[in-house]
Each structure stands twice: as C-alpha cells, then as structure tokens.
Design brief:
The complex is a heterodimer.
Chain A: E1 12-18, E2 26-32, H1 36-47, E3 55-60, H2 72-76, H3 94-99
Antiparallel strand pairs in A: 1-2, 1-3
Chain B: H1 11-34, H2 43-71, H3 77-81, H4 101-125, H5 129-157, H6 161-174, H7 186-193, H8 204-217, H9 241-255
Helix pairs in contact in B: 1-2, 1-7, 2-5, 4-5, 4-6, 4-8, 5-6
Classes of the chains: A alpha+beta, B mainly alpha.
Chain lengths: 100, 262
C-alpha cells in the first residue's frame, strides 16, 4: 500500500449480507471506509463479488454493543440445565417433517 | 485489415470494427487499472480498482471473441496480443499512464460516464442479438463503475486541500483527451448507417451535464471544453505510452506463444 495517504485510519464498518430473499442477514466481516456510501461499495467489492448475496447492510463497528467474555457464564450457562426450554419432547408429525 | 483509414464495406465489417473499437478501449483501460494491484491507497480501494479492471478486461474479452468468431480467427488473444500499437483503435485517454489516484479516478469517471450513455443508446439500437446481449450484461457493471468513480470525485474534490488540488490537476491534464470520446470518422458513420453503432454526439449534452454537475458538486472547476483537443488514436495515431504498455502486456504471450495455464 502506498504510504503517502493523508488519511489517518478510516473508520471500521461491520458488513452483513442477505444470501437470498427472506433469509436472515449474516455477518460477513468488516471493511474500512470514510463514510456509509463508500462502506457499502467496499463491502460489495470485498464480500459480494461472487454471488454471495442480494442485499448488504453496513453498520459502524463502534455502534454495535456486544456482550463481553465475562458475560459468558451469566448469559449462556443457565441454558444448559433447563432442557425443558427446548421443544424437543414433541414428536413431529411426518407431514411437518417432510415440508422442511 | 490495417487501421489507417480503412472503411468497412459490409455490415459484418462494420460490426467487427465497432467490436474492436469498444474492446480496445476497455482492454487498455483495464490494463492501466490492473497496474494498481498492490498499490491502492487503501486495501479496500485496491480491491475495488482490481475489480473494475477485471470487469473491463472481461468486457473486452467477450467483444474480441465475438469479433474473432466473425472474422474466423482462432480466439480473442489474436487481438489482444498479436497486434501492434498502430492497429489498436482505442482512444488516447485510456492509454495514458495511471498517474496518481486522483488521475485514475478522474479518467474512470469521464470514461464510465461516456460508456453509460453510449451503452444505453447501443442497447436501444443494435439488432444483433449476441452483441446486444453482451452490451446488456456489461451495462450493469458500467453503472457500478460510474457510481464508484463519481462518489470518489465528490470526496476528493470536496475533501482535503491536497485531494482537491490533485483531482483538479487530474481533470485539467486529461481534458484535452476528452474530445476523442465524441469524434466520428468515416468508419463510425458507416457503422451507424449499418445500425451497429450510434451517433455519439447525440448524447454529448447529457454527458456534459453529468460531468458539470458532478464537478460543481465536488467544488471543482470545469475545464474549458473549447480548448485544443487531441485526436487520431482511433486511426492508429497514438501517444508514445501505448507502445510501452503493449510491450509489457504482450511480452509473455509473444515470447512463449505455447504457454498454458497449468
């Protein structure tokens, strides 16, 4: 990369893409860009050049609130000993299974 | 067929001439863009420029291969690798050295804006199905090239003092090569008559409008349209830069004609 750029680092954006109509958006990775429009274009060039998706979201990385590693215990462990929260005790009728 | 003032006689000759003119512009421009690979101002822009380069070289390849089919040549490589600079029909604007990022963006914007209007008109006019199909496919990518380069013109023009100065210099420097976009010669007129090309002067007004409004929005000064304009490249009278470009681009293929991808 050339080093005569006047930019200090551009802000970071998280990229989400939708693989197909009706499917949820998935996280693809991130890009640097000076603003939202360029972030969208960079995301397209970086992550959507091979037919990966039909729609893209970009979100400033610093706008995302994430759980921290310490939250892992209180957030996720309680799920382990409460199997009744999972709908696994029903037998699924064959007709429903088939439709999946 | 040598380039100098040879006027196509039949519809097929006119079509081949049109295909080669379009393809040469795109191959040479694409090659210049490919020179940015690994040198882009940012990683993301490095990828973007390489993507545009690939698009343009892809456009050239499909146009060449159709010309090869019509002329009974083996494949598209004949046109890309085994012609000399005098036989290339591209305009001079696309063969100029890549310059700085501002110059590359200014050229991309002016050329993509021209291609945008040209392709629109060609798609409405051309009856040849194979050719028209290519045009429609390329047009989608041209829209993206225009959007990308236009957004950059706005940001560089209305950016820092240095970016403003550099992109203004770029437009001033490239301006004398914009005249060729709208030059029509006898070969073009024959192609227009045969419905395989269009009168480019008909959309010059729209092109100017887009260029003017973009430069104004970017706080740039529009250079003088009536200044001296370079011409003659489509007839083989190129700048010194094309020969150097071809030497690099054609060297491998000519030195190792039987080389293959393994």
């Amino acid at each position: 990369m050339s080093n005569n750029s006047t930019n200090t680092e551009w802000p970071l954006w998280e990229v989400f893409y939708q693989p197909k109509d009706g499917k949820p958006f998935e996280h693809a990775g991130n890009v640097h860009a000076p603003d939202a429009e360029m972030a969208l274009q960079n995301a397209r060039d970086t992550y959507a050049r091979r037919n990966e998706g039909i729609s893209i979201w970009v979100v400033p990385s610093d706008q995302i609130t994430a759980s921290s590693p310490e939250d892992r215990g209180p957030f996720f462990d309680p799920a382990n000993d409460k199997p009744y929260r999972h709908p696994q005790f029903y037998s699924v009728p064959r007709a429903v299974k088939k439709r999946k | 067929m040598s380039t100098f003032d040879t006027i196509p006689q039949t519809k097929q000759e006119a079509l081949v001439e049109t295909l080669l003119r379009l393809a040469d512009d795109r191959l040479i421009h694409g090659h210049r863009l490919s020179e940015w690979a690994g040198h882009g101002p940012e990683l993301e822009e490095d990828l973007a420029l390489a993507n545009v380069a690939l698009d343009m070289i892809g456009h050239a390849a499909s146009l060449y291969s159709y010309a090869a089919e019509l002329e009974g040549k083996e494949d598209e490589d004949h046109y890309a690798y085994f012609r000399d600079d005098i036989d290339f029909k591209n305009i001079a604007m696309v063969e100029l050295p890549k310059g700085d990022f501002g110059f590359t963006i200014a050229r991309q914007f002016l050329f993509s804006a021209f291609s945008y209007f040209l392709y629109q008109k060609l798609i409405d006019t051309v009856e040849d199905e194979q050719f028209n199909g290519m045009l429609q496919k390329h047009f989608k990518e041209i829209k993206y090239h225009l959007r990308h380069s236009r957004e950059w013109v706005l940001r560089l023009g209305d950016g820092t003092e240095e970016s403003h100065r550099r992109i203004q210099d770029a437009f001033d420097e490239i301006w004398m090569y914009t005249g060729e976009l709208f030059d029509l010669d006898d070969a073009d007129r024959e192609a227009i008559k045969q419905n395989v090309f269009v009168d480019v002067t008909e959309f010059k007004g729209e092109w100017k409008e887009l260029v003017n409004s973009t430069l104004e929005e970017a706080t740039l000064t529009v250079p003088d349209y009536d200044q001296y304009m370079f011409s003659g490249s489509r007839q083989g009278r190129h700048t010194e830069h094309l020969g150097h470009l071809l030497a690099q681009m054609q060297f491998l293929r000519r030195s190792y004609p039987d080389a293959e991808w393994k």
